[in-house]
Amino acid sequence: MGLFRTLRRRGPAVLATTALLLSGLVVLIAPAPAPAAAPSHAGELLVRGPASSSYTRAPLVSQVGKEGATLSFSVQVRNSGVDLAQYRVLVKDLTAAKAQTYDGSLNVQPLAGSTGGYVTKALATKASQTLTVKITIPTGDPAYRHNSVVLLYSTDGAILDYVYLDAEQAAPAVGTTSADLLVKQGGQPALGNGQEYQVLTAPTVARNGTATFTATLQNNTATPAAVAFTVVDAACGYTLTVKDGRTDVTAAVLAGTYRTPALARLGKRNLTISVKATATACVTTSWVLQSGVPDQAPTHFANLLVNLAA
After folding, report:
1. DSSP label at 186?
2. List of E strands, 36-127
3. Which of 291, 306, 309 is nearest to 213 (CA)?
4. Looking at 17-21, 133-137, 235-239, 291-295, which range is the least confident one?
5. Which superkingdom (predicted)?
6. What residues does 93 pair with on adjacent strands?
């Protein structure tokens, strides 16, 4: 959960350096040989949201797929300065899944995965170069979250920006407890059913835009049982609405007092969760969903992520 509290971009150079130093990801690299342009410390990464939605400056985007599926992330290197500039791009794997980076149809992962990194073409001010990072969800791996990070450096070795790419494995078809939590957004496969703290990212929204999710609470045991459900409010310029059918249950969900009726075996309750970006919305926000047995500590968790368009 802490990841989403700390990775909002407020100043890419300062925040990225701090976060990456803490996680041990910063790599000291030698200056690029004979760059076509003088080193620039004004550059940024943008990443396209799920379902081919708009690019965002958010520091994390997730997609969902089944075992063996290859998920493609579109990442732009953008010159945010005023002079012609080149940049170095490094792509590092944080889990067992191996990212592959492409410039068009050319696989540049051997360079992007090396200490020296992949050097972009010379970019004019406000121009960008698009790379595609593909992550295949391993088959038979017990892990259900697979992460890589894209690091942007100047050609003289200064860290400028970063973005985490999160490949989430789809949920099992059926859970095993009396308070299972399954979350879904649009056409993406669902997450949860015992796979805890997965991240479900909505398509990128504009200011005053709304992202909608469905949370399903299900009893997968033989004994009838009620389910408690809570959402931890992240806010940061976003508003939350939760509806049980047509009934607005937002206040109860945020207060931790929402309960379903007793659900029979395989009985479920679908809640609609809407997150709206206001005019003052941060570049990203996350909401933690929690389910469990009433009056006991929550046992199932999921993260909803909403990113603002660049």
Report:
1. T
2. 43-48, 55-56, 60-65, 70-79, 87-93, 99-103, 106-107, 118-119
3. 306
4. 17-21
5. Bacteria
6. 148
- Contact present, 131 and 161 (Cβ < 8 Å): no
**What whole-number distance in Å separates Cα of residue 58 and Cα of residue 179?**
32
pLDDT digits (tens, 9 = 90+) for 26-66: 555 554 455 667 799 999 999 999 999 999 999 999 999 99
SS3 state of residue 260: coil
The dihedral through the CA atoms of 59, 62, 67, 72 has a sign that is: negative
Amino acid at 69: A
Instruction: Go through the domains of the chain in sequence order and give each one's CATH number.
Output: 2-169 (2.60.40.10), 180-307 (2.60.40.2310)
Neighbours of 196 (CB within 10 A): 14
CB 242 within 8 A of CB 253: yes
Tokens of 51: 């379902």
Distance CA 174, CA 18 (A): 41
User: Residue written as tokens 């996350």?
Assistant: 286
| Integer Cα distance of 21 and 13 in angstroms | 12
Q: Measured between alpha carbons, how far is 197 from 215 in angstroms, rounded to an integer?
A: 14
* pLDDT at position 282: 96
Amino acid at 88: R
Length of the chain: 310
What is the rounded (10 degree) CA torsion for 306, 2, 236, 11? -90
